[in-house]
Design goal:
By secondary structure, the chain is an all-alpha fold. Helix 1 runs parallel beside helix 8, helix 3 packs across helix 7 and helix 3 runs antiparallel to helix 8. The longest helix is centred in the first third of the chain and has 28 residues. The radius of gyration is 16 Å and the shape is globular. The termini are far apart. Belongs to the UreF family. It is found in: Cytoplasm. It holds the Pfam family UreF.
Length: 224
Amino acid sequence: MSRASLLLLADGRFPAGGYAHSGGVEAAVAREAVHDSASLEALCRGRLHTTGLTAAGLAAAAATGCDPLLLDDAADARTPVPALRAVARRLGRQMMRAARATFPSTELDRLAAARPQGAHQPIVQGLAARAAALTPMDAACAAAYESISGPATAAVRLLSLDPLDASRLLARLSEEVDAVAAAADDAAARAATEGLGALPSASSPLLDITAEQHAAWTVRLFAS
């Protein structure tokens, strides 16, 4: 296992397309629900403990060795909004391209062949972590961190927020990221014996609603 591989997988500059997505922040800024670092922190915390936890569980389960096709179906069931399912598969397709070039593996190849339109992004992320000899906990950490780092980075552009404020926000949430990752890792371990129903299925209805609204905008800075 290489910690450098974990840093690479969690790096926002990893060419997996995440930079083009705001994680719901663009719609929240338009509604004035996010307007400063405090309101951004509230959104990120809520996202971390809902969609972030769910993504972390899926990523950890993929890294554990659960069937990725069954996990992809489970991800579909946990993503009720068509706009977000499309985004998850688009990001999965982009991450698959980057992951296969960076961490070649037959498991990634098989999933790419079975899901040519893209598997859900956390599943690909978990298989990439497995290919890099990282642990399920590492995969969960990467997914949990991404659930808040993307929105924080987007807010810097959308609000002209001081990048130092965004970095402080991520640092304040670091212990919660660890706790979410640990819960996801535990759920993934139980899923191996109890079934995929043991994985988290937390959701954020408001983010779901605004994602559908955002998808209908004719002019937007971010894809989602």
